[in-house]
Amino acid sequence: xxLATTAAAPVPPSPDALLGLFPPGTTTAPDGGLRIGGCPVTxxxxxxxxxxxxxxxxxxxxxxxxxADGLAARRPDAMVAFASKAFPCTAVYRLLAEEGxxxxxxxxxxxxxxxxxxxxxxxxxxxxxxKTESYLRAAVEAGVGLIVIDNFDDIDRLEHLMAxxxxxxxxxxxxxxRVTPDVRPDTHEAVTTGQRxxxxxxxxxxxxxxxxxxxxxxxxxxxxxxxHIGSQILDTEPFVRAVAAVAELGxxxxxxxxxxxxxxxxxxxxxxxxxxxxDALTAAADELLPAGARVIIEPGRSLVAESGVSLYRVVTVKxxxxxxxxxxxxxxxxxxxxxxxGQRFEAAVATRVRAPADGAPGERCRVVGRHCESGDVLSAxxxxxxxxxxxxxxxxxxxxxxxxxxxxxxxxxxPPVVFCRDGRSRPVVRRExxxxxxxxxxx
Length: 443
Ligand SMILES: Cc1ncc(COP(=O)(O)O)c(C=O)c1O
What we know:
alpha/beta, 13 helices, globular, disordered N terminus
């Protein structure tokens, strides 16, 4: 299934509609150019180069606050854990730890980054459908709060690790059982995770078996259940069905209800607000789960997507076969969401958001990348005012799963990450160098 978001806008959007996709607080300068976090895009491009991933730090902090305060107001003793796969960069871990969020990690690398960034291990939740012994050992040794049991091998490995621990008997490790609730939300099938046939978690009968085994364990402490049904979900109803499914398995002190809320990528997307999502989820928890149970949620995409903007430079403009191809200096090397899921992104000429030279609506264009595949499209069917080589192109809503999925196709150097706030910009990840590309090569 393709996402509904792949369709282009039928008419050119107004400048205000366009601005509405950029991080809250984005403005235009008198010359019509964008200011992200108060920084003019021309200055950002001159200082940090292109392509670059810009993050409006204030917008990200506000979003984290809406999640943390919103959940705390609805369910005391709750925790928001950042699903760090969405943006696994130490500056982002640090920022979100400062905002009081916990972290969900999937793999030893994300665990190492979270710990290096100073995340309190007690606030770390460990995931994975194929957890190696070394990953589990690192998690136990770090003292992580919770490990999510995805399968029976996880139980065997953890039991074994805890039994092997030297010295006096170690404390019991807190665990959750990941439940596959057989709920399929309406999103791209590559990012559905809670349906029968998913590789993640245990269907209800197997979950019951795992619960029984864990209840009999002296080394593992079963704290509760976990459920996560997928990503870019634009409706609250499937989340409620997932809560109902886990409620069938009995009463526990902790329920981790996962992430999955969608981001607003396009003019037509209408995801529930953070508050509407929290209302629906906590209403279901209030009705179906024990009153004093601790609720955890793990937003990734909806937490970080909307604070990110990718900035590119136009290299060529080609009018051919009825199409206008605007080719930029990045593409599927820094944004794989289009080729992987057909996710639609909008785009703007960053210096002419408000003031098309002649007031014309712009030309319908296909913004393409520099990589050697025809699928290397950033945005098809966007209206751009008289695009020219040298123009800056801004693609909004790129804070989630772009940094994580960035790659070196065509030996492209991965872009820097630049935090922008109150008119100041600071790189928190530098651009890769050609030397970086060769650093792992052996003579
Ligand atoms: C276990 C788990 N929790 C949370 C998330 C975050 O999902 P999203 O980024 O859609 O909020 C994921 C992502 O796939 C996940 O696998």
